[in-house]
Amino acid sequence: MQFAERLNNVETSAIRELFKLLGKPGIISFAGGFPDSALFDVDGIRAASERALTEEPGAALQYGATEGYQPLREQLAGFMAGKGVTDVAPSDFLVTTGSQQALDLLGKTMLGPGDKVIVEGPTFLATIQCFRLYGAEVISAPVDDQGVNTEALEKLIAEHKPKMVYLIPTFGNPSGATLTLARRKKVLELAVKYQTLVVEDDPYGDLYFGEAPPPSLLALSAQVPGSRAWLAHCGSLSKVLSPGLRIGWLVAPEALRERAVMCKQFSDANTSTFAQATAAQYLKAGHMPATLAQVRKVYAERAQAMGDALRKELGDAITFVAPQGGLFLWVKLTGARGQLQDANVFAQRAIAKGVAFVPGTPFFAQNPDNATLRLSFATADVAKIQEGVARLGQALAA
Ligand code: PMP
């Protein structure tokens, strides 16, 4: 069969291949990007879905507006207002089937063969693949522990004149890094100066362990004249409430949003009305603050446990910056004292010892750093984390 040429630009994800090994009995996995299903507020979501079916059965089970279910758009506007975004109206939200769909719609509306996009090196693998599927050339900007290096980013923007700059400014996947306030302002200024769309992907911003992170680019754009016209923001309930609901959203300049709505119309017509009505009921009932407090507490304990265990078991063989939020810990093998420095080899040895993680290589659109790897601390409890990291120590010594 002759498939579309665009498929030649992407490969099946290396991560998916690795996931096939995870079924092995006894494996402790730090590989997934999932939240912990044991933390889902099942009772709260069940009650919200029952209210959706009792109070609004016709709407909850019918087709709906492509833009999204109005009561959910209102709740989302309230949710974002709680995070400092006070000048965005319900009608500014396009509800999407996960934020993954928002990224796909951005690709569909903005990118064609030969267009350039700048992303962080490393970044979310599915975004790289999605943008490549539209024919884009994906260029990598360097990231440090304060997020993307804005000086390097400006040079790359000036050189490549990209259609888009895609960033995960808060608790990045996989880097765990958070962009500083000063750099956030700089990014918004660059968007205006070079008239380049900046995409803020923010599924993790609510998952902070101590102090709240700096305000989102969307919140800050109110302070940088002209920047709102060059900013798209993707949000999601997946990591804080449930990815099974598939509720995400896009806030974007009107002309872009309208085109994204048109593309969504031809794709899935609308995001599940039942899921939207359930999410709206959940938010309306005011459950979110308690849910957030609970997930933050559990992930903070696990992040701490993983950091402590890594220092104890792997010592100078690695460096990492303790994450302040999110689900991931990004590690670099130092190669100190002749120790292993290739994370792909380390991953194979680790599987043999009964522990899995994702090597960093596939997260780079260009110039992969093979000494890096991503550990998720989200789904294993503290005892499993300690056992898994001990196995990592053994794998490294093997
Ligand atoms: N963006 C990032 C950075 C992610 O890590 C993920 C999920 N792993 C998504 C978007 C997509 O999430 P969802 O479609 O479930 O909202």
UniProtKB/TrEMBL annotation:
Keywords: Aminotransferase, Pyridoxal phosphate, Transferase. Residues 46-392 form the Aminotransferase class I/classII large domain. The keyword Nucleotide-binding does not apply. The keyword Transport does not apply. InterPro entries: Aminotransferase_I/II_large, Class-I_PLP-dep_aminotransf, PyrdxlP-dep_Trfase, PyrdxlP-dep_Trfase_major, PyrdxlP-dep_Trfase_small. One of its GO terms (molecular function) is transaminase activity. This is PLP-dependent aminotransferase family protein.
